[in-house]
Every structure is written in structure tokens, then in C-alpha cells.
Amino acid sequence: MLDPRANPELIGHEDAAAALERAARADRLHHAWLIAGPEGVGKATLAYRFARFLLAGRPDATPLLHVPAESSVFRRIAAAAHADLLTIEAGTLQGDRKRSDVINVDAARLIPGFFALTAAEGGWRVVVVDGAELMNPAAANAILKVLEEPPPRAVLLLVSSTPGRLLPTIRSRTRRLDLHPLPDATLHPIIAEWLPGMAEAERHALARLSGGSLGRALQLAESGGPAVHAMVEDALQAPTPVRVMQIADRLAADRNGASFGLFFTLLRRGLAEASADAARGTTAPGWVSARPLADWAGLWDRLGRLAEETERLNLDRKQAVLTGLSWLRPDSA
């Protein structure tokens, strides 16, 4: 899948793109936008698309916010080489201490300094903070002055999958755009285009598992999503000892651990969805009635800790699967 900064296509989200274009063309552009929504639906793609549109001089073109891939602005943004665009993300300015789960204060302090500069090309200056929820408290506080006293012709684009983790003072000073999961009618043909060799039934399974996220669908495909989901379904239906061993062997054979992590993610999702259905009194799988709902909630938490510790401590994945599946048996409660 293309890096968002180099992706010329925006799948869906026409209303959000239209809102950004209208604001830019009417010269009433808010100085800070919070682009929110589930992972993989196109938030960063939209942010970079809007950045290109502004830095290219707001060209008249269709589709919305379109800048041709052959243009100089497009190519420089794709190469992270445009002087009037700054990207902040986890790991920025952390060198050998790079972490994938935090944006620190040193990175955030680049933003006011960047906005204090004169635009190199005489137009706008744009900052994209990808994964804004990863700002630690010091980093979040470092950008408040920019939000309170915005410089002219400068736009801050905060991209977040969990906007509730942002400071209320940040949320209140940004204009929010929510991107929603893609409908099946949009998602299915795109999956077919990206994965033409996959069977139709598997593509439908991917769409269902992805929750309307193209990015998640492609990640699931790389990790054998439909096959892993079938293993999860078997695991929840009181499988035989032979089937349990087959599942453990297959997941342990995946050297990079992607299938292992996906299995536990989907397993916990299955527990959560079935428990929620049972709590609402709607149709739920028969295996849910084998335990009180509170037990399933506790098991959801235990499975999460087991998967996390196995990966963090480099423990035996096969044994972790066997242990987790043993907890699913009614006699293990």
C-alpha cells in the first residue's frame, strides 16, 4: 500500500474533502484541523492531499483537492522534500532512541519554529502531525501557543485514530473532520483491484473483518486474515485437542509473528462481540452461555496480557497459543 504522502488517490470521504476545499477557496480556512477516524480509512492520505492542494496554490481541478502526480509539488511532498511542509510523527528527532509509540516534546517544538519562518515559496506553510494522540503531555502543551495565537497562512493538520486521548484544550481549538468506515459497496471493488488473485469469498471475509478500513483489509491480507479468522472460529467452538495443536503449530510456524498477533486480536474481538450480543439480549453464539459474562471479560484481558508478554519477552508462541486456548475450555474457569 502506498505511503499516504505519495498516494494520489483518496477512496471515499468526499464530504470531508469538499469541506476542506470549500474552506480553502472561501479564504476562511481554520488554522488547525483534527482529522479523526478509525485506523486505515485514509486520514493521513487526506491530510497530505490537502497539504498538496494548498502548497500548489489551490488549483482548479477535479476530483476534489486534486494535484497531478507529475507536478513538482506532488513529487517533492512524496519525497519529504518540500520546504513548506513539516511532518511530525512518532520517532521524529529521537535518533537511536526512536520509539514507535510516542511524539516527544523536542519534535513538537519544531512546529512553532517552523511556523515562525517565512514561507519558502511565498504561500502557505503546513504541518501534518500523524498519530497526534501519541504526543506525550509535554509535546501536547508545546503546541498550545500555536493553537492560541495562530500565525497567518499556516495550517496545522492533526491526524488521529483516538482523538479522545488529545488534551481538551487541543480539541476545542481545532475544527474536527470525522472520516467514517468505507461502505461495502466502496470497499469490495477496491479490495478486488488490489488483490485480484484472492478468491471472492476471502475478499468478502476481508471486508467484513476490516470494519470498513482499506488499510486494515490489506494488512489482514498480508497476515493471512481469512485463514486466521477461520482458526479463531474453530477455537471458539470447543475444538478437539488435535485441532488445537494444528492451530498452535500453524501460528508458531509464521516466523514474523504477524499471524500470531492477528489471531489474538481476532480472538479477543470475537469474545467482546459475542459478550456484547449476549448482554444486549440479541443472538449470540452458543458457547457464550458456558460462562458468566464477567468471566469472558476477564478472559479478554488475560488473553491480551498473554499475547503482549509473549511478544515483548520473546516467549514461545506455540505454548502461548496452547495456554490461551486452554483458558477457553469451560472446565478451566
From TrEMBL:
One GO term describing the cellular component: DNA polymerase III complex
Enzyme class: transferase
Nucleotidyltransferase as UniProt keyword: yes
One example GO MF annotation: DNA-directed DNA polymerase activity
Pfam families reported for this sequence: DNA_pol3_delta2
Record field: transmembrane: none
Domain of life: Bacteria
This protein's record includes keyword Protease: no
Keywords per UniProt: Nucleotidyltransferase, Transferase
One GO BP: DNA-templated DNA replication
EC number(s) from the headed UniProt entry: 2.7.7.7
Name the record gives this protein: DNA polymerase III subunit delta
Organism name: Plastoroseomonas arctica
